C-alpha cells in the first residue's frame, strides 16, 4: 500500500508527548479520573506535564533493569495511565504488552506465560483479587502503580531516579503488543511495529486533518486497545484538547461534555448506544459535536440517527470505520441526518485509496452475492507482524498477502463493502443476524441491546436488554418481528450480565452457551434476568 509506506518512520510512541508538547506546550488532556501513577497532576494535565511524567516513569523502569527488547506486561486497574505507561516502556526500547483490566486472572497468567518471564506492572487490587499466586513465578519482577504487596516493588518508591534519554528503535521493531477481543476463546497477542502503527494511523490522520484545532476531541476507547494508540497521536499531535473518558455513564459524561463541549467524539458502538440518553439531556452535551466516529463493531442505524439529531452543528457527520485489531481501519463511510434511521447498516463503506485493499472470496465457487456471501479479505501495511508465540495461527489467516478477517459479506457493483456476519456467528437460513438486529433496534426504541444467537431447535433466539431493565413490551415486540425470519421467544437479560470484551463487543458464542445451559448470567439478586418472555415471535 504505497501511501502507507512513503516516508514511514514509525509511530515513535516513546516520544509522542514530547513532540506534542513541542508543538502545543499548554495543550490539555481532560480526564474523568485521577492517574494512579500521578494523582497530583489532577484531571487537566498539559502535554508538557505528561511528557515529563512519561520520561520520569521510563527512567524508573530503567532503574529496575528494564532494557531494550525486554517485554513489560501492563495489567492494572482501569485508567489512562495504562496508555501512558505503554509510552514510557517504549521510550526505553522495551516492548509493552497491554492486558485488559477486564481479563480474569487465569487468562492473564496464560498470556504472561506466552511472553516468557516479562516484567509485570500491576497494582495491589489486582494481586489480591484477580491474579493467581503463580504470577510471581512467571514474571521477572512485579511493579506496583498503587498500594503495596510482598515481593512487589512500588513504582512510587523509585521517585527521583536519574533520568535516562529516550532510546530510538527502528520502525520494524515491535513497539506494542495488544490482545484480540477473545470473543471466540482465549485472546491472541497481536504484535505491532512502529511501521505498522504509522501505516494504520495515516488514513485516519489524513481525514482528521480537516477537523479545526479549536475542536476538543473526546475519546472513550479501551486503554489497552490499538485504536487508543492512533486516536491519541492524531489528537495531540494536531494540538487538540483531548478528553479521555474511563467511564461511559451518561450522567458523568454529560457533566464533562457540558464543561468542555467536544467537537469530535470517538467511542465504541455500544458506548454510543448508551449515549443515546445524552440526546435528551437539557444541557445539550452533544450539541457541539461536528463529527462522531466509531469502529470495532457494527453500529446500529437508530443510534447514528439519534446522535446526529442531538448535534446542533451544521452538516454534522457520523463516520464508521470497518477494521480489526490486527489490521487497523480498512474501509469507511459517513452518515448525515438526511439518512434517518432506515439506512442500510450493513454497508461499511469503501477502502482508503492507495492505502487499503478489500476483496471478497467465494466459499463455494459461485459468484459472491448478498444471498451467497464470501470471505472478506484485506491488504494493509497496518497489519500486525505476528501473534506472539503463535505465529502458525497468524500464518493461517494470510493468503498471498491477503488477511482473512473472519467476516462474511459481499461488494456491490459500486465497490461498497457489505458486512453480514462473523463466520462463527452465521446461522443457517438467516441471511444476516446483524441486519435483523438493526431492524429490531429501529423498531423498538426501548432496546439497548439485542443479540440473535442459534437456538437448540434451529430457530434463532433473540436475547434482549431494555433501557432501565424494564419488562419487554410484548405487544410492541410482536409488531417489530413482522416480516423478519422466524425467531424464538425473546430472552431478556440485564446488559451488565451479558458477557462482553474489553471493547464492549458481545461474546456471542459464550452467550449462546449460557442461554443453552439455562443460565440467567446474573447469579444472586437478579431474579428478572435471563427470563424467557412468552411471546409469539414468529
From TrEMBL:
InterPro entries: AMP-binding_CS, AMP-dep_synth/lig_dom, ANL_N_sf, ATP-dep_AMP-bd_enzyme
Disordered, as annotated region: 519-538
Record protein name field: Acyl-CoA synthetase
Secretion signal span: none
Domain of life: Bacteria
Gene3D superfamilies: N-terminal domain of ligase-like
Organism the protein comes from: Streptomyces vinaceus
Stretches assigned to the AMP-dependent synthetase/ligase domain: 17-382
Amino acid at each position: 500500500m504505497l501511501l502507507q509506506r512513503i516516508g514511514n518512520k514509525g509511530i515513535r510512541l516513546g516520544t509522542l508527548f514530547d513532540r506534542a508538547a513541542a508543538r502545543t506546550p499548554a495543550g490539555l488532556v481532560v480526564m474523568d479520573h485521577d492517574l494512579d501513577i500521578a494523582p497530583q497532576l489532577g484531571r487537566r494535565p498539559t502535554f508538557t506535564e505528561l511528557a515529563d511524567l512519561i520520561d520520569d516513569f521510563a527512567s524508573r523502569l530503567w532503574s529496575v533493569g528494564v532494557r531494550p527488547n525486554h517485554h513489560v506486561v501492563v495489567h492494572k486497574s482501569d485508567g489512562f495511565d495504562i496508555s501512558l505507561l505503554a509510552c514510557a516502556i517504549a521510550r526505553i526500547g522495551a516492548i509493552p504488552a497491554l492486558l485488559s483490566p477486564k481479563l480474569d486472572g487465569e487468562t492473564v497468567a496464560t498470556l504472561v506465560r506466552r511472553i516468557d518471564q516479562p516484567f509485570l506492572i500491576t497494582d495491589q487490587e489486582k494481586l489480591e483479587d484477580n491474579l493467581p499466586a503463580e504470577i510471581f513465578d512467571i514474571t521477572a519482577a512485579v511493579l506496583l502503580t498503587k498500594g503495596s504487596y510482598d515481593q512487589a516493588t512500588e513504582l512510587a518508591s523509585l521517585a527521583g531516579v536519574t533520568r535516562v534519554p529516550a532510546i530510538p528503535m527502528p520502525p520494524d521493531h515491535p513497539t506494542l503488543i495488544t490482545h484480540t477481543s477473545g470473543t471466540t476463546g482465549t485472546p491472541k497477542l497481536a504484535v505491532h511495529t512502529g511501521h505498522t502503527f504509522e501505516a494504520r494511523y495515516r488514513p485516519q490522520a489524513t481525514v482528521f486533518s480537516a477537523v479545526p484545532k479549536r475542536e476538543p476531541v473526546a475519546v472513550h476507547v479501551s486503554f489497552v486497545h490499538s485504536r487508543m494508540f492512533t486516536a491519541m497521536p492524531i489528537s495531540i499531535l494536531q494540538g487538540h484538547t483531548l478528553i479521555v473518558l474511563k467511564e461511559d455513564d451518561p450522567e458523568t459524561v454529560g457533566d464533562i461534555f457540558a464543561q468542555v463541549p467536544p467537537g469530535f467524539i470517538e467511542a465504541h458502538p455500544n458506548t454510543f448506544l448508551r449515549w443515546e440518553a445524552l440526546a435528551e439531556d437539557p444541557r445539550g452535551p452533544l450539541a457541539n459535536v461536528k463529527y462522531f466516529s466509531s469502529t470495532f463493531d457494527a453500529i446500529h442505524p437508530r443510534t447514528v440517527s439519534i446522535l446526529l439529531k442531538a448535534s446542533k452543528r451544521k452538516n454534522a457527520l457520523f463516520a464508521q470505520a470497518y477494521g480489526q485489531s490486527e489490521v487497523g481501519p480498512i474501509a469507511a463511510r459517513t452518515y448525515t441526518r438526511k439518512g434517518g434511521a432506515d439506512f442500510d447498516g450493513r454497508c461499511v463503506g469503501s477502502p482508503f485509496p492507495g492505502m487499503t485493499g478489500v476483496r471478497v472470496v467465494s466459499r463455494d465457487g459461485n459468484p459472491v452475492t448478498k444471498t451467497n456471501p464470501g470471505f472478506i479479505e484485506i491488504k494493509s501495511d497496518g497489519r500486525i507482524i505476528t501473534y506472539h508465540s503463535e505465529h502458525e495461527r497468524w500464518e493461517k489467516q494470510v493468503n498471498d498477502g491477503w488477511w482473512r478477517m473472519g467476516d462474511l459479506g459481499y461488494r456491490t457493483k459500486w465497490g461498497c463493502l457489505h458486512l453480514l456476519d462473523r463466520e462463527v456467528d452465521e446461522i443457517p437460513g438467516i441471511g444476516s443476524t446483524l441486519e435483523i438486529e438493526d431492524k429490531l433496534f429501529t423498531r423498538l426504541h426501548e432496546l439497548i441491546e439485542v443479540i440473535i444467537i442459534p437456538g437448540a431447535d434451529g430457530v434463532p433466539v433473540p436475547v434482549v436488554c431494555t433501557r432501565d431493565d424494564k419488562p419487554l413490551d410484548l405487544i410492541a415486540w410482536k409488531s417489530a418481528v413482522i416480516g423478519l425470519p422466524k425467531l424464538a421467544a425473546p430472552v431478556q437479560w440485564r446488559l451488565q450480565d451479558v458477557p462482553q470484551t474489553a471493547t464492549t463487543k458481545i461474546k456471542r458464542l459464550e452467550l449462546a452457551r449460557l442461554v443453552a445451559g439455562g443460565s440467567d448470567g446474573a447469579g444472586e439478586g437478579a431474579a428478572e434476568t435471563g427470563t424467557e418472555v412468552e411471546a409469539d415471535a414468529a
